Every structure is written in C-alpha cells, then in structure tokens.
Amino acid sequence: MELDHFDRQLLNLVQEDASLTADQLSDSVALSVSAIQRRLKRLRASGVIMRETAMVDPKRIGGSTFYVVALQVERERPELLTQLRRWLTDEPHVQQAFYVTGEADFVLIVTAPDTETYDVLMTRMVSENANIRRFTTNVALGLVKRGSAIPVPVEVS
User: Fold this and answer.
1) Where's the HTH asnC-type domain (predicted)?
2) Of 6, 35, 36, 99, which is most buried by a Cβ count within 10 Å?
C-alpha cells in the first residue's frame, strides 16, 4: 500500500493519541473530516494500523514492575521456535518479545505486580517450553520512557 504525505501525518498523530477525533485531526492535517475518516478506515482495513490500545499508568493500578529478559534456546528448530513464539504471544505478562541476534535468542519485556508473580511465570515458561536453555533478568528500577509509536517520516525521497 502506497502511503502519501497525509497518511504519514495521520499515522504519527494517531500513534500519539488514538482517541483523537477526525475533527481534531483535521486541525493538524489539511484534509476534510470525511477524507480523514476514509483514510483511517483504509489504513485499518489494509493492516497498516494493526490495532488501537490504551496505555495504562502502572502506578494508578497498584503498580507493576518491568523485567527485561534475555532468553536463550537450546535448538533453533522451526517447530520449537513456533511453539515458543505462540507461548510468548499468548502470555499477557509478556508485553513485547523480540527475536534477536547476539548471545540471546529472544529479548522480552515482561510486567508483573511483584517478584513472586514473575518467578511463577518464569517457572511456568521454562516447564512448558523444554527448549529454553537459560534466561537472565534485569529488573527495571524506574520507568524513563514507555511507548510503542514508530516514527513515520512524513516526507519520503
């Protein structure tokens, strides 16, 4: 799908705040409300906009700790990696999972209300995925920045 200047502007704006109305978006993008609605509908239907979510403040829901986990697997056989990917995708405490190069095979961002919950989760992960060799954990001491927006260049060459 070809993205033009207006699509790119809209993508940056809705990534920052998906609750903006077409009327509010038209104040920033030089298009009519109906044109913005049509474009957003097309961006959603084509899968460019995969989903829209709300970002919750961990402190206001009783707190949550973030863990950065480096995970190594025994073998990179496709069926074993597929099983692990499915497990990671289905687990709500796993916020993000990256298949990476380097010493680790996966890097995970995991959230849990406390270390006991985290320990139970990781014990379950290892017991349900025999292909895991080892993992290391870094506990986030503070939240400096949290986001999911991908900067979209408005002008393309």
Assistant:
1) 3-65
2) 36
